[in-house]
């Protein structure tokens, strides 16, 4: 008996299913899972179990290795040259704060429900299957595109390490294709496919390799910071190379700092990958909070120091947007060229660690999405010998390699930032909803009304910040929005009691911290350009289409077969209230 036997057994069955789509949407779109189902019944659909072998230091290693390479070595140059100038240091600090607040939200869910699904599972147990699918689709797109972007960044730094004057010499151009899609990068393809083989082998061995590489990478980062500050000049923080360009620490204004923060938010995708390792952690209660939050804090400090050292080395208008650190040493005398080549080697090395972690994360997301029956269950299979999701790893590895082959870095970065911010926004909403609503026993409308009003106020503030002309009226309207947001938040805090208390670890200062995370994510979303929204809308629309044409029918069949039984509106008892459901040592 298979979950596809009814709707997909023949064309006639499929067309009959399509005609029943409205009823199936009503039944399945808002259907929620439970912590018990995610941690037991859904896990059984993978066949073999993932091996619990990771500790907090493994998670910190994964977090640092996953974030540092992707952030500083790919996005810093563009953010400084085009958006923030020397104030890119503040851009990283703002993005880091936003990531830390989101990390708290992830940590509460991951401790309470230690499964590999990350944000997909968190949304599925709160807002239902449809929103979980849209979130999961954006997550998969984020990971594939960010990994493709980082792989192409690897090629740029490899060219520097080899002493090539132009990294495009390692790519070949097809003139018949549109600009931005015409530079073929076979090296990026080879790197992605090689790492796909590594992550299929074993998670613990991957952690060991990542730990060694990350420790060496941190030593390299310290070298870069020391060299940057020892050779740099403080005047580069305020004086451009070309007097005609804007000067000062904020050459693009305060808005440029937030535009830069939105761009460098790509740097923090790695902590999200750490949360997908929850199913393989020995003691989730202890290890996950240290691993997730600790890695974000450590990486934020490293990012800010490296961005400052880069700004000290060169005026912002001389920074190489593709390879900022190695390019900075090329601009000096010949006795510093060896540093440029060494940075190329080290950056290429760091990018490999970030790719390794991100590809581990994307495979686990796809595995758990497969368990929910909204994509083929083939993706959910865990290989009995390696205890890893081999099917998901291979499929996404090939997909990532295909994108890395031809797509320009700038196109990838903007799309990844908007998708990440959307997912983090959803998780912040979900943690508030889960604290204040017990389905079947609690009225959800006060909480939903608060989330809507607070998000709407944040959107209005962001629109005013971006488009209203400067002056006292703008300041007055912005101040009014802040007052309204605080008032709505205080009213909700005092009038709506929490329906459940986390037994092991919870976000502090509820609902303030997740609300601030909601505001910051919306604000950073407002800093992105119009083409980013067009691409995001296209991919989200495509995800909705896939859900209507395939996923809702697949999950409907799974419910009929007994694989899924939860329907919208049913009373749910969270069995996770029993501490025996949380693995410990």
Break the fold down into its secondary structure elements and pairings.
Blueprint: H1 11-19, H2 21-28, H3 35-44, H4 56-84, H5 88-112, H6 118-124, H7 129-161, E1 172-173, E2 183-184, H8 186-201, H9 203-231, H10 253-264, H11 269-275, H12 284-313, H13 324-330, H14 337-371, H15 390-406, H16 409-436, H17 445-467, H18 472-495, H19 512-525, H20 530-561
Antiparallel strand pairs: 1-2
Subcellular location: Membrane
Protein name: Cationic amino acid transporter C-terminal domain-containing protein
Membrane topology: Multi-pass membrane protein
What attributes does this structure have?
1% strand, globular, single chain, mainly alpha, transmembrane, membrane, 20 helices, 585 residues, CAT_C, two-stranded antiparallel ribbon, Cationic amino acid transporter C-terminal domain-containing protein, disordered C terminus, transmembrane helix
The gist of it:
With 585 residues, this protein is an all-alpha fold. The protein has 20 helices and two strands.
């Amino acid at each position: 008996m298979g979950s596809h036997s009814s709707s997909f057994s023949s064309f006639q069955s499929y067309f009959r299913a399509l005609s029943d789509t409205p009823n199936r949407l009503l039944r399945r779109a808002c259907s929620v899972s439970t912590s018990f189902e995610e941690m037991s019944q859904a896990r059984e659909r993978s066949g073999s179990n993932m091996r619990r072998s990771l500790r907090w230091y493994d998670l910190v290693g994964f977090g640092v290795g996953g974030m540092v390479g992707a952030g500083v070595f790919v996005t810093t140059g563009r953010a400084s040259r085009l958006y923030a100038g020397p104030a890119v240091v503040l851009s990283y600090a703002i993005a880091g704060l936003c990531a830390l607040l989101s990390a708290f939200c992830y940590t509460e869910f991951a401790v309470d429900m230690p499964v590999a699904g990350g944000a997909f599972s968190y949304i599925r147990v709160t807002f239902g299957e449809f929103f979980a699918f849209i979130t999961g689709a954006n997550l998969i797109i984020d990971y594939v595109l960010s990994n493709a972007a980082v792989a192409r960044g690897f090629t740029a730094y490899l060219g520097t390490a080899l002493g090539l004057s132009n990294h495009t010499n390692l790519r070949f151009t097809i003139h018949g294709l549109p600009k931005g899609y015409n530079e073929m990068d076979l090296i990026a393809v080879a790197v992605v496919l090689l790492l796909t083989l590594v992550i299929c082998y074993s998670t613990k061995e991957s952690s060991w390799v990542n730990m060694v590489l990350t420790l060496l990478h941190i030593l390299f980062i310290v070298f870069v910071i020391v060299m940057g500050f020892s050779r740099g000049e403080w005047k580069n923080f305020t004086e451009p190379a070309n007097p005609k360009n804007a000067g000062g620490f904020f050459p693009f204004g305060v808005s440029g700092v937030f535009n830069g923060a939105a761009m460098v938010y790509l740097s923090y995708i790695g902590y999200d990958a750490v949360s997908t390792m929850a199913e393989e952690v020995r003691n989730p209660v202890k290890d996950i909070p240290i691993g997730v939050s600790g890695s974000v804090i450590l990486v934020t400090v490293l990012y800010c120091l490296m961005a400052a050292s880069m700004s000290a080395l060169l005026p912002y208008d001389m920074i190489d947007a593709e390879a900022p650190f190695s390019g900075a040493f090329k601009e000096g005398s010949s006795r510093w060229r060896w540093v440029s080549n060494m940075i190329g080697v080290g950056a290429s090395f760091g990018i490999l660690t970030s790719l390794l972690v991100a590809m581990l994360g994307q495979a686990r997301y796809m595995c758990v999405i497969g368990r929910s029956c909204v994509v083929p269950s083939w993706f959910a299979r865990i290989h009995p010998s390696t205890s890893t999701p081999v099917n998901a790893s291979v499929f996404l590895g090939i997909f990532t390699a295909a994108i890395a082959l031809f797509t320009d870095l700038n196109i990838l970065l903007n799309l990844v930032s908007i998708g990440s911010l959307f997912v983090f926004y959803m998780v912040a909403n979900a943690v508030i909803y889960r604290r204040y609503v017990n389905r079947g026993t609690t009225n959800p409308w006060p909480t939903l009304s608060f989330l809507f009003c607070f998000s709407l106020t944040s959107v209005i503030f962001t629109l005013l910040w971006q488009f209203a002309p400067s002056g006292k009226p703008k300041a007055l309207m912005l101040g009014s929005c802040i007052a309204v947001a605080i008032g709505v938040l205080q009213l909700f805090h005092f009038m709506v009691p929490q329906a459940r208390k986390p037994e092991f670890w919870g976000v502090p200062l509820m609902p303030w911290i997740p609300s601030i995370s909601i505001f910051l994510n919306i604000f950073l979303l407002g800093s992105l350009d119009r083409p980013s929204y067009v691409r995001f809308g296209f991919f989200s629309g495509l995800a909705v289409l896939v859900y209507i044409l395939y996923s809702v029918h697949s999950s409907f069949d799974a419910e009929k077969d007994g694989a899924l039984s939860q329907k919208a509106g049913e009373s749910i008892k969270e069995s996770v209230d029993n501490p025996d459901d949380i693995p410990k040592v």
